[in-house]
Amino acid sequence: MKKWKDILKIEESKEKYQKELLESSFLNKLKVLIRLQDKALFFGRIKYKFDESFNFIKIIDIIDDLKEQKLIDDYCLGGATALLYYSTPHLTDDIDIFIELKKKSLIYDLSEIYDYLKSNYNAKEKGEFIIINGFPIQFLLPGDTLTQEAFNNSEYVNVSGKKIKIFSLEYLIAIMLNLGKSKYRERLRIVKEEKKYDINILKDILNKYKLMNKWNNVSI
Fold first, then answer.
1. Is residue 22 scored above 80 in pLDDT?
2. Which residues make beta-bridge pairs with 138?
3. What CATH code would you report for 2-167?
4. Which of 26, 144, 147, 209 is the one with CA 20 to 30 A from 178?
């Protein structure tokens, strides 16, 4: 009987921690993510680990600088890092920054952006990433109608007094469903369980892009 009581206490403590983490600040969630990455890197589940000294606000300042220099028209935080704002931490080894460029083309050239970052912020190229202060960033253009709509309907959030533009939770859910990658299954399950989304907005998006069946098949 005592054993079951101990198990119950552990589960209650875990649920309490998860709830507190869900309601905590974005920067606090980022610290938790960095701790999770230690084990993930050891077991080969991620390629890169965010540096403990990493300053997220500084990265946003750099992206804002790219905008001021007219190297990009606009930007929006996407992927697991954007999801971090709404949900509990999910493993990722890079920051996805969606950008708009003046030149509209399926083939886009980031060399001018990379050259500026290398000259002014000691950045380094590594595969599909640009590494700034040990932090991998991937610049992406919205590649389909859904992602472009998500970009157009992105929202500003406040992180430690800094306004940051990110995809809304409802669009993040739709994009994950649309991509259908196996790594999104657990993310979607947790997001559905947490119920931080606006169900009416989500239904409109999912019905528009015929994703409702996929959402209904996400079990919690």
1. yes
2. 96
3. 3.30.460
4. 26
Strands 135-140 and 95-100 turn out to be: parallel
Give the phi and the psi of residue 70 in degrees, each rounded to 5.
60, 25
**Cα torsion for 12, 82, 46, 20, to the nearest 10°?**
-20
Q: Residues 187-220: pLDDT tens digits?
A: 999 999 999 999 999 999 999 999 999 999 998 7
Tokens of 5: 């009581």
pLDDT at 5 over 70: no
Q: Give how far Cα 10 sits from Cα of 13, 32, 220, Å.
A: 5, 19, 20
Alpha carbons 144 and 179: distance in angstroms, whole number: 11
For residue 140, list its beta bridge partners.
Answer: 98
Compute the distance between CA of residue 182 and CA of residue 15 in angstroms, rounded to an integer.
Answer: 25
> What is the tens place of the pLDDT at every residue in 48-80?
777 766 788 889 999 999 999 999 999 999 999
State the DSSP string of 106-154.
Answer: SS---HHHHHHHHHHH--EEETTEEEETTEEEEEE---SHHHHHHHHT-
